[in-house]
TrEMBL record:
One of its GO terms (molecular function) is hydro-lyase activity. InterPro entries: ClpP/crotonase-like_dom_sf (IPR029045), Enoyl-CoA_hydra/iso (IPR001753), Enoyl-CoA_hydra_C (IPR014748), Mitochondrial_ECH-domain (IPR052377). The keyword Nuclease does not apply. This is Enoyl-CoA hydratase domain-containing protein 3, mitochondrial. Coiled coil: none annotated. Belongs to the enoyl-CoA hydratase/isomerase family. Keywords: Fatty acid metabolism, Lipid metabolism, Lyase, Transit peptide. The keyword Transit peptide applies. GO terms for biological process: fatty acid metabolic process.
Length: 268
């Protein structure tokens, strides 16, 4: 439950096919508390089956995009008879499920990052399909500095950046700039702060103009083939593409291209 009855932990707004979700716990630097993760998971689940939602943008209010897990919540649990074991298991499991929900979501998800994204917050950025950040944004997996290696964040991190770049972030625990994050593939673009929202929303609008069926097929296939052996990946994606060619939207899109007219998607 939200312990701040005066304001929601998560703001939601959907316009023209773009669902904009804003983390709204700036006092705790948008830490991934149990409550915030539960709200985010619920909204994402609802959006999966909502035909009005074609693409999702995750942003945040305050000076931090997301500071990772709530360390005060973790520390308080150590006073329990089990030394916090039950909470730790729930917390880490909930976060892992949430990150997989983002990766497996049928709609493309864009992270719009202002401020810092650290530990599980960096994991959240890496888990999204696309990420745009303000030039002033900073990223880190600093768990090693407090005796807690960022083991679960490294799953998403290691699937987005080169092994040595991932290990540098994990072993040193240093903050890196948005420009460096762009260089190593953690984010797509670093832009001026005043252009951040416009850039993310422009990307979202372009995606929203596509066939949602085609986007779902493509996103699922991308992640499914990623770690298959080369020959298996080609066999798998060949069948995906054949099935895609048989779909109504592929027929419509190809005919529209030939006829030099805008396509009228049926999303099937």
């Amino acid at each position: 439950m939200n312990d701040r009855a005066d304001q929601p932990l998560l703001l939601s707004d959907c316009q023209q096919g773009i669902l904009r979700l804003t983390l709204n716990d700036p006092a705790r630097r948008n830490a991934l508390s149990q409550a915030l993760m539960a709200e985010l998971a619920t909204v994402l689940q609802s959006a999966a089956d909502d035909s009005a939602v074609r693409v999702i943008v995750i942003a945040a209010n305050g000076p931090a995009f997301c500071a990772g897990h709530d360390l005060k919540e973790i520390t308080a649990a150590r006073a329990e008879p089990d030394k916090g074991l039950a909470l730790f298991e729930r917390l880490i499991d909930s976060c892992a499920v949430l990150m997989q929900q983002i990766a497996n979501h049928p709609k493309p998800i864009i992270a719009e990052v202002a401020g810092v994204a650290t530990a599980a917050g960096c994991q959240l950025v890496a888990s999204c399909d696309l990420a745009v950040a303000a030039e002033s944004a900073r990223f880190a997996t600093p768990g090693v500095n407090i005796g807690l290696f960022c083991s679960t964040p490294m799953v998403a991190l290691s699937r987005n950046v080169h092994t040595k770049h991932a290990m540098e972030l994990l072993l040193l625990g240093d903050m890196v700039s948005a420009q460096r994050a762009e260089q190593i593939g953690l984010i797509n673009h670093a832009v001026a702060e005043e252009e951040l929202t416009a850039t993310a929303m422009a990307m979202a609008a372009k995606i929203a103009s596509k066939s949602s069926y085609t986007l779902q097929v493509g996103k699922q296939a991308f992640y499914n083939q990623l770690h298959k052996p080369l020959d298996e990946a080609y066999r798998y994606t060949a069948q995906v593409m054949v099935n895609n060619l048989l779909a109504a939207d592929a027929n419509e899109g190809i005919c529209a291209f030939i006829d030099k007219r805008p396509p009228q998607w049926q999303d099937c």
